[in-house]
Amino acid sequence: MSDIAFSRREALAGLSALSLTACAGTAAPAASSPAPGEGLHAIAQRKGLRFGSAIAYGAEGSDSGSIGNPEYRRIIERECGLVVAENEMKWQAIRPGPDQYNFAAFDAIVRYAKAKGLDIRGHTLLWHRPKWLPEWVNTYDYGARPATEAARLITSHIETVTRRYRGVIHSYDVVNELFDDQTGAFVDTSLSKAMGSHEAVVDLAFHTARAELPGAELVYNDYMSWEPGHANHRAGVLRLLEGFRRRGVPCDALGIQSHIEMRTIDRKTGIGPYDLKEWRAFCDDVTGMGYRLLLTEFDVKDNGLPADYAARDAGVANYTRAYMEVMLAYPQLRDILAWGMVDKYSWLQGFAPRADGLPQRCCPYGDDYRPHPMRAALAELFAGAAPRA
Ligand code: 9MR
């Protein structure tokens, strides 16, 4: 695959970018305004931050949030410095059988990103959920030595992907979503059953990724969040990250997906409730263990807000402001990615429909490709953020 193969210069650029340590956060937030017409990534970049988005594969001219939609591309190219494939690098997409791979759609996204000078994150080397693994994994016959065979499936997958995109992808969600969000207990898959424990699966995934990519950023990615009801999920993630440190597992950062949500509205603030103290304590514990932070899949569920578009957009912008102010205060945070840039293509339209049947206004841009107040809020927040080293 010569068009995907890396050059040494690209590889070194990725390494040096990753070796920059975030500053200690002593600088006061610089009061500055975004210049008119400046894209979100350009604004972010002045502070050592990066802004990006998920993008899908689509044939040219397709009506989707994809590389095939010229209007969607224009927004990506104006606003983003990095992209992530929404689905096209998952096992379901690239691994139709135990010894078969299909990289066609993901390669097309990688080619597009390279042509436009966009960085690309890898999502995800292992999504540990039966629901999101190919059916052949769920029903797999692991034979007489199940642990050995499960290890082979995992290592061969991670080696195949990381080798193919070596020098191109410098940051991976190595493992995604290990937990039952209600209890904070691990979710079983055929892989964890075959290997005998979840730790065996996860540790192997990170060690394999590190062996292939000594300089890359290796991330554990999950949707524990700041809303009430996430305490058990956060506790599970903390236990995992503590375990990584004890066992010497090479995980560099926590990917906080940031699908933040307003199911109800707090009358005092006009936005959704959030457990600020508990959330900060969680982020402090994570960063205190030396992990960096990424916001990997930002969007806002507006279910609790009124139907009226202006009121709703204002609420979404205010909730964005409240959240990003907390998150941008962490000097360990560098990358912020939206899970899509245009409302109509968001997964939320299907996964979290509003009771009134109206579409979610969850992304920086509306269906007419005009920016929502959320976009202006992000611009101001990035412009006002403390500079990273
Ligand atoms: O947005 C994605 C949607 O199109 C897919 O159907 C779904 C299953 O592959 O995954 C969605 O993306 C998820 C991401 O990969 C992991 N975190 C939660 C995201 C939203 O469900």
Strand content: 5-15%
Q: What gyration radius follows from the Cα positions, in whole Å?
A: 20 Å
| Helix fraction bin | 25-40%
Major β-sheet annotation: 8 strands, parallel, barrel
Given as residue ranges, the uncertain stretches (5+ residues, pLDDT < 50) are: 1-30
Number of domains: 1
Strand arrangement, major sheet: 1-2-3-4-5-6-8-9
CATH class: Alpha Beta
Small ligands present: ligand 9MR
Mean pLDDT: 93
Shape: globular
Number of strands: 9
SSE order, as H and E? HHEHEHHEHHEHHEHEEHEHEHH
Q: Count of helical segments?
A: 14
* Distance separating the two termini: 36 Å
CATH topology name: TIM Barrel
CATH architecture: Alpha-Beta Barrel
**SS-derived structural category:** alpha/beta
Identify the CATH homologous superfamily. Glycosidases
Give a structural overview.
With 389 residues, this protein is α/β, with parallel strands linked by helices. It has a single domain, classed as Glycosidases (TIM Barrel, Alpha-Beta Barrel). Helix content is 40%, strand content 14%. It has helices spanning 8-19, 40-45, 70-79, 91-94, 104-115, 135-138, 146-164, 190-195, 198-212, 231-247, 276-288, 309-328, 348-351, 373-384, and strands at 50-55, 82-85, 119-127, 169-176, 217-222, 253-256, 259-261, 292-301, 333-338. Strands 1-2-3-4-5-6-8-9 form an eight-stranded parallel beta barrel, surrounded by six helices. Strand 1 (50-55), helix 3 (70-79) and strand 2 form a beta-alpha-beta unit. Bound molecules: ligand 9MR. Residues 86-87, 90, 132, 176, 223, 257, 297, 347 line the site of ligand 9MR.
